[in-house]
Specification:
27% of the residues lie in helices and 22% in strands. It has a seven-stranded parallel β-sheet. The protein is an alpha/beta fold. Strand 1 and strand 2 form a beta hairpin.
Length: 680
């Protein structure tokens, strides 16, 4: 019976099989000299040309229909090659010889779906094998599940939460936005929603930005739902992730799947609810091909299955907020869950007034006084600065030489702990020169500051204090989790960190937050810089005043203390901030009032790059429905790959924008991003 297979840059390939196959089953197929993994797609009529046979059925349990539809939708919506989107749906190593054990499908609770002979198979070029493993189903290891009982307790809600829950459940739109201020108890609403779904025999997917930094939320779900909770995360081995995937696809028992962006692709046949916590987080956007937003994919899946998708956050993405208001799918929770929660006192420090910095050039005098009191009282202080390292600029004061990355040609950052210069874009590192490589001048100086320098300064000022850093240099999830446990236990006096610390951590001993330069992110040349700055400030300020201590205070240091973003963040007034930015975006014709795409060209020589981007600009300019920027250097103009230039394209119609860019999808040298979250 004939079967089709899609390949990168081409149409469907047709195969044959004597087996009775279902859409979504995973098979091995010959492709050239290789044997690759494919996904059965659909039955096709008999063809009048020779076809190769499918090599092997890998697993009898088909990928759920909503994920099959997502393969095509992602490919079309984001102009991504179909095999790349198909790769997302199948765990790495599914065809490994040791991955599978013989088992009859009748031995398990096999998902029911119509049997169809001869289906389309989507090859996954990244998964190749010469083995022909048997059909499989290993048992899920105990380490992947919680061990408490499965009896579901009732969830206690306060009056505000009950109202919000009722309103959420009454919304007709599949996607619903829950904007809850920090400490309002969004978690209890998640639990109640999950409870209702599980009692109906359906499953829940809960997305979190990172497992290591959302351990408290995970623990609450584990305590509540016990062994029905299954975790999916990067710390699991490939073998463990594969076993989890096979356990999920083979069993219709209701469960709660918790994990980062990829957990949305867990093969649940009985999915009844999607919850996305901290929905504003950038981690929900996949920056590597195939590029996509997990929020948009979740909305598509929810609409396809006619189930709720809840976006929970205190600071929604502006586009999501505008859409929710427009479609009457916004629920706001503005009351603190705990009556013991206190209103923290916020002090604004003007960085331009150096009289505020009599003891140290980075830390204002009132902030240092608060830190000293906290150390004596066994309370904690959080110092936030969204730049890691010690100094972002190294130069010669004689000739002006700068330490630039040889790959990216961007300034390298000094890290004084190992006295190296590191590029925070590509990871290149080298020793700090003892003299200028160009003129030989002995004075090489370092400008600016990062979290490592702040740590060094604080160790000098408070030599007996225990100080810890949370930033991008803490690369391992286990390290972050262990560090968080120390903080929660009160063993750390001063926490220093970047946006890693801004996420929803509950810090019971935290009494003071110091934001070293609140307006630093506003200087970035990007339409999303104000939104990111507001989100970060709101999240950081929200770490205090959660009801653990009698007193909490925040010190906000800024060169622009009266900037609308700074003022609304301090007031935790998201609606006012959204009104300000929506008005500005409307004037600039930026999202949500238009659709964006970024088309960039990268070649080894600048001459070729300029020629290609100008050709694209000229061709697209013929389309009168588009607004097109002049060709311009990318934010990271020069890298090891060559020179990159870009154009930004706008349209009031996303479909017209997508159609206009089809010729550039997959074209050599071009990178196309639809709905870019940033233009940097």
């Amino acid at each position: 019976m004939p079967t089709e297979v899609y390949r990168s840059g081409g149409g469907a390939l047709t195969y044959s099989s004597d087996l009775t196959l279902q859409p979504g089953q995973i098979v091995l197929i010959p492709l050239g000299r290789k044997v690759v993994t494919g996904i059965i797609w659909k039955k096709v009529p008999k063809v009048d040309f020779p076809t190769k046979p499918i090599t092997k059925l890998l697993c009898p349990f088909p990928i759920p229909k909503h994920l099959l539809k997502s393969i095509s939708w992602l490919s079309e919506y984001y102009l991504s090659p179909l095999p790349l989107t198909a790769n997302l749906m199948v765990p790495a190593g599914i065809a490994a010889k040791t991955a599978l054990k013989s088992i009859s499908p009748e031995n398990k609770n096999t998902p029911k779906s119509p049997l169809e002979a001869s289906e389309d198979a989507l090859p996954q070029k990244s998964l190749t094998t010469k083995h022909k493993p048997n059909t499989c189903l290993p048992e899920l290891s105990d380490a992947s599940r919680t061990q408490s009982g499965t009896k579901l307790p009732k969830i206690s809600l306060n009056s505000a939460q009950k109202v919000a829950l009722k309103e959420l459940q009454s919304i007709r739109s599949s996607t619903r936005l829950l904007r809850g201020i920090t400490g309002s108890g969004k978690t209890n609403i998640y639990l109640s929603l999950a409870y209702d779904i599980l009692t109906k025999g359906q499953s829940v997917t809960l997305l979190v930005p990172e497992i290591a930094l959302t351990s408290q939320l995970v623990q609450i779900f584990e305590r509540t739902f016990g062994s029905q909770v299954i975790l999916m995360h990067s710390r699991q081995t490939m073998s463990e992730r594969r076993r989890i995937w096979l356990e999920i696809i083979s069993n219709n028992s209701p469960r709660v799947i918790i994990g980062p962006r990829s957990a949305l692709l867990a093969p649940l046949h009985n999915l009844g609810l999607i919850i996305i916590d901290e929905a504003h987080e950038s981690a929900y956007y996949q920056e590597n091909p195939p590029r996509y937003s997990a929020l948009r994919l979740a909305s598509f899946i929810a609409s396809t299955r006619k189930i709720p998708c809840i976006l929970g956050t205190a600071t929604p993405n502006l586009v999501d907020y505008h859409l929710a208001k427009t479609h009457h799918s916004l629920i706001e929770l503005t009351q603190k869950a705990k009556t013991t929660a206190i209103n923290h006192h916020i002090t604004i420090i003007d960085l331009k007034n150096r009289d505020n910095f009599t003891k140290n050039r980075y830390f204002s005098t009132p902030l240092l006084t608060a830190i000293e009191k906290n150390i004596q009282a066994k309370h904690q202080t959080l110092i936030f600065h969204n730049r890691r390292g010690s100094a972002p600029l190294t130069l010669c004061e004689n000739c002006g030489w700068q330490a630039l990355c040889p790959e990216c040609f961007l300034p390298m950052t000094l890290h004084t702990d190992n006295y190296t210069l590191a590029c925070h874009v590509c990871g290149h590192s080298e020793k700090v020169p003892t003299s200028c490589p160009d003129c030989g001048h002995p004075e090489v100086i370092h400008k600016g500051f990062g979290t490592k320098l702040l740590e060094s300064e604080l160790k000098i000022i408070f030599p007996t204090a225990k100080i810890a850093r949370f930033d991008g240099d803490n690369t391992k999830d286990d390290d972050l989790a262990n560090l968080y446990n120390e903080v929660k236990a009160g063993e750390i006096d001063i926490l220093i960190g970047t946006q890693t610390l801004a996420r929803g951590l509950d810090l019971p001993h935290l009494a003071t937050v110091g934001i070293i330069q609140a307006d630093a992110g506003l200087a970035l040349p990007d339409f999303a810089s104000e939104e990111r700055t507001f989100e970060l400030l709101t999240q950081v300020i929200g770490r205090v005043g959660r009801g653990h201590l009698d007193k909490a205070e925040v010190f906000v240091q800024s060169f622009q203390p009266d900037h609308p973003v700074i003022r609304t963040a301090i007031q935790a007034d998201y609606p006012k901030f959204a009104d300000f930015l929506l008005h500005k975006r409307h004037e600039q014709q930026m999202p949500p009032f238009t659709y964006l795409a970024r088309l960039s060209v990268t070649y080894k020589t600048e001459r070729t790059t300029l020629a290609k981007i100008r050709q694209a600009y000229t061709a697209l300019s013929q389309n009168r429905t588009l607004g097109i920027s002049p060709p311009m250097p990318a934010f990271h103009e020069r890298t090891g790959r060559g020179f990159t230039w870009q154009i930004v394209i706008k349209s009031s119609s996303r479909e017209q924008l997508r159609q206009a860019l089809v010729p550039y999808a997959g074209t050599n040298g071009f990178t196309l991003i639809l709905d870019p979250p940033s233009l940097l």
